[in-house]
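The following record pairs a protein chain with its ligand, zinc ion.
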Amino acid sequence: MKSWIIFCFAFLITNSGVIFPSDGNSVDLIFSNLQRIYNQSHSSNEAWKTLAQLCDDFGPRLSGSENLEKALFWIENQLREDGFDSVWTEEVMVPKWVRIHEDCEMIYPRRKFMPILAFGGSVSTPNEGILAEVLVVKDFEDLERNKSQAKGKIVVYNPPYEGYGKTVQYRWLGAVKAAQFGAVAALCRPVTPMSMNNPHTGVMHYEDTIPKIPFASMTEEDVLLLQRLQDRGIKPKLFLKILTKDEGLSPSKNIIAEIRGTTKPNEIIAFGGHIDSWDVGSGAHDDGGGCVASWYVLKTFKALGIRPKRTLRLVFWVNEENGLAGGKKYAELHKDETHALLFEFDSGVFPPNRIGFSGADSLWVKVQKFQDYLKRFYPELQIVQGGGGVDISPMTKLGYPGGSLGTDDKGKYFWYHHSHTDTPDKVDPKDLNDCISAIAMFIYLYSELM
Ligand SMILES: [Zn+2]
């Protein structure tokens, strides 16, 4: 009797404040399904093995590459074997940019090989390469102050890492700004808080009215070396050869799989990640992990036989890294279907610590109360205002609600991001399972309670 009273008291405390289902389903049923989702997601390391297989067997998946198309073919077949209600693909034309050859060597004051990675979209140097003096600048203001010295030089940007969003502007605008002052090429410190002598690639930008010069990431170590030499009055000289090819557009696809909703099948919850990656490493954190986590969310519902009210639509978006063609195509084809939510996971696979949400106030009032359900499983996880992702942005811009999973990477995500080191050994299987169940629980609550 005593234990029964304690149980009831504990139940009242832990369940106080939760939103009750409006359809007669009980809070107990919701909690029981959340527990089943948690248990199923943590029952094995299958998700990590799938991620490793994706990364190891197909390698990096740059838009336009054979690797990507082979990976897409494999995923589509696997999804059909999973037995979801429907699986289909939608053609997307994506850019095809190819890295052919890269070589950078300091020639003066001593010879030193310097690893580089051209930024995506960079033009080539002449076939025979460039031999030029270096001008190291700390930021765009420093370049402006020293613009009279930039002509004929290789401008090397040395901005300290001040967070991805702020520092990435040097990668995006660096070629244009250096070319304006007559530089023959530009190189940049990688956008990372920690370097072990690895350059990081990523998308860059040209303007039609300004000469296009080759642009690549160096390692932080080499940029700092060039800076120290310059500070001592030495004028380092580099040999630089970058050969790339722009092959125009190439056919690719988004892949979609669904479990149809029971009572609200026309209200869609679309969720996923981007299946393309950069052409180095194997895109494990960015965004193979996001794709595989989303895939296992749908597999979890299937395995448990949970049929949600709303339709769950898993999307593998293509070409997030250098074009957003997949996200745009999705919006073009599906903007008139009612989307209850679009959800993206593209923040690296680390312990989940927040779910971001952007939507009408009336929705937010309910969504923030999901925390009362989730805190039993994830005491640290916060539901916060402001969610979304690049792939879902063409839909959220139309006014659809957007959500995303955030993770506590302790600053590590950008150690690996867009570099040779983004491989599955950097992904912890337990973190991946935690991400899967956090997304599955949120989506389940959204489907059943909104
Ligand atoms: Zn990404």
